[in-house]
Amino acid sequence: MVHLTVHLVREVELCGPICFRWMYPFERYMKVCKGYVRSKRHPEGCIVECYIAEEAIEFLAELLLDDKTVGIPKEKYIVDKPTSGATVESVYGKEFQQAHLCVLQNTDEFRSYFLEHMEHLKREFPKYKKNKKWLLDKQNMTFGQWVKERVESQLAEPGCDIPEIVRWIADKPSNEVPKFSGYQIGGGGAI
Question: How many CB atoms within 10 Å of residue 110?
Answer without folding.
Answer: 21
